[in-house]
Design goal:
Layout: E1 5-6, H1 7-11, E2 24-25, E3 28-29, E4 40-43, H2 55-60, E5 65-69, E6 79-82, E7 85-90, H3 93-104, E8 111-116, H4 121-134, E9 139-143, E10 146-149, E11 152-154, H5 163-175, E12 180-184, H6 187-191, E13 199-205, H7 213-216, H8 219-231, E14 234-235, E15 238-241, H9 245-253, E16 257-261, E17 271-280, E18 283-290, E19 295-299, H10 304-319, H11 324-330, E20 342-344, E21 351-355, H12 360-371, E22 378-382, H13 392-403, E23 406-409, H14 419-427, E24 437-438, H15 442-452, E25 458-462, E26 469-472, E27 475-478, H16 481-488
Parallel strand pairs: 3-4, 4-5, 5-7, 8-12, 8-13, 9-12, 13-14, 13-15, 15-16, 16-17, 21-25, 22-23, 22-25, 23-24
Antiparallel strand pairs: 1-2, 6-7, 9-10, 10-11, 17-18, 18-19, 20-21, 26-27
Helix pairs in contact: 3-5, 4-10, 12-13, 13-14, 15-16
């Protein structure tokens, strides 16, 4: 239960309002539809919606007070009374909200690990949480696959929730005795100040490749948003993948960086690197050396990018003071993440691998990872999201054709776009478009591949991963790549 705090106490760092000492704040809410009697409504100017348009309806629903973003008409510190309810205006409320919510929702004894980058965030946060649990610590995650403890994740609408949700969730996890929480930190979350007041014991950077250009405009802006985790936030340690060009440049700039590489490296004073990496269906074996000494690490995951993910998780936990030997002894018990290079197989049928890859770079890495395991043909089944960056559609098709043997184009989340147009955009990236199979229905697309593949083939079904829905024409329908794979291979659901 959140402890109530007086309004003048809550806002004291930013505005002086002694007249509001009798107003008690116990719950903050950004969505006016969820306001209940006694809730304090927060009205910010959002990327799409101006929350101040809903002040009247929030008061109608019983809001006891409103925090609203100041503007030219309503100066900072203005207090107006509407139907006996105080409305307090604050400058740049969107950027201050994380700190305001942090005063109300406390979690003093929990260490936070923030993970940012284009690909790998979910896997790394879950590996960190799994590993901590194996060492006897209670650990939670927040991100794409949900918030909470790994055995009981609660669905989340966004990778990084709003500033209030984040603080509220962290406080709730602390009340459930979480000692650590590993959070996926998106570029949107960083730009919009959603994690502004969080204090990270460690921040991790995975990689940077094309994504979200519909929001950021340029790769440079996208990179700057990610860099902000380490330069504009409280972040004690920076664990950086230097095999990524952007990461390499950052590690040179950041004084608290620990450089992580799959190749021997003597360039950085504080670093951990692999001297040898071996891949097999049973998993990845890494010989390592560097700041924390040498040793051998084995984990049952597949693919080069997972070797990077394991090394980043390992370096993070070592930097937090965890015992190296204990980490090495428990690494073999780590589990792949749902919908992340997840293997489905049965005798005498092609293997199906379900992966969340929905960016050019992620698709490339997934196909490269599977190529080393593939004795027959490698199939690539994927789609591209509607109402999102259209520039990546031909790029992903080109990658699938270049690295796969058979290409099947299907739907991802068309949203409001015409699926045929999305596929048309994808086809422009193929040198032999006539050889590609187009099947808009994802289940039928996989069914075609399973029926036509040999037992030695591997089928990559990319794009949806853990998700159990598709969005088309404003409607969300139930669909799961994992269920499709199990059904078509005759595995029990």
């Amino acid at each position: 239960m959140t402890k109530a705090i007086s309004m003048d106490g809550l806002l004291s760092p930013w505005v002086d309002c002694p007249s509001l000492s009798s107003v008690l704040v116990s719950e903050l809410e950004l969505d006016s539809r969820r306001v209940q009697p006694g809730t304090t409504f927060v009205a910010v100017i959002g990327h799409v919606v101006d929350g101040r348009n809903f002040i009247a309806s929030a008061i109608e629903q019983g809001a006891n007070a409103v925090l609203a973003q100041a503007c030219d008409l309503k100066a900072h510190g203005t207090v107006e009374i509407i139907d006996d309810v105080p409305v307090i205006y604050l400058d740049t409320l969107d950027q201050r909200l994380s700190a305001i919510a942090g005063k109300l929702y406390a979690y003093p004894d929990m260490d936070l690990v923030g993970v940012t980058g284009t690909n790998g965030k979910t896997t790394i946060t879950q590996l960190i949480a799994q590993w901590l649990e194996l060492l006897g610590h209670k650990a939670a995650v927040m991100g794409t696959t949900g918030n909470g403890f790994l055995d009981n994740l609660q669905q989340a609408a966004n990778t990084t929730g709003n500033a209030v949700e984040i603080q509220k969730t962290l406080s709730s996890l602390a009340n459930q005795q979480a000692a650590y929480t590993a959070l996926e930190v998106s570029s949107h979350g960083l730009t919009q100040g959603r994690v502004k007041a969080l204090s990270f014991a460690a921040g991790v950077f995975t990689n940077l490749s094309r994504d979200h250009l519909d929001y950021h405009g340029t790769m440079e802006e996208y990179a700057n948003a990610k860099l902000g985790l380490f330069t504009q936030h409280q972040c004690e340690r920076a664990i950086i993948n230097i095999d990524d060009e952007v990461g390499h440049a950052w590690a040179s700039q950041l004084s608290n960086a620990i450089a992580v590489s799959l190749k021997p490296n003597t360039e950085f004073e504080s670093a951990i690197w692999a001297t040898d990496v071996r891949y097999a269906e049973s998993g990845i074996t890494i010989q390592f050396d560097g700041k924390f000494g040498s040793g051998q690490l084995h984990a049952p995951l597949i693919g080069e990018f997972n070797a990077t993910n394991i090394m980043l998780a390992f370096a993070t936990l070592l930097s937090l003071g965890k015992d190296k030997q204990a980490l090495l002894e428990t690494a073999g018990q780590l589990q792949p993440v749902l919908g992340r290079m997840e293997l489905f197989q049965t005798a005498d049928r092609a293997k199906v691998v379900v992966d969340y890859a929905h960016t050019p770079d992620a698709l490339e890495k997934a196909l490269q990872a599977l190529r080393v395991h593939c004795e027959g043909q490698l199939w690539a089944i994927f789609g591209c999201g509607g109402d999102r960056d259209a520039g990546k559609r031909p790029m992903m098709a080109e990658i699938a054709e270049r690295l796969g043997d058979r290409v099947v184009l299907t739907d991802d989340n068309p949203r409001s776009e015409e699926p045929a147009q999305i596929v048309k955009d994808m086809l422009t990236g193929l040198s032999k478009p006539a050889e590609a199979i187009v099947q808009h229905d994802r289940f039928k697309a996989l069914s075609y591949a399973v029926e036509n593949a040999s037992p030695k083939d591997i089928i990559l079904l990319a794009g949806k991963g853990h998700e159990e829905y598709q969005i088309r024409n404003g409607e969300t329908i139930h669909y799961s790549d994992r269920e499709s794979a199990m059904q078509l291979l005759g595995l029990s659901l």
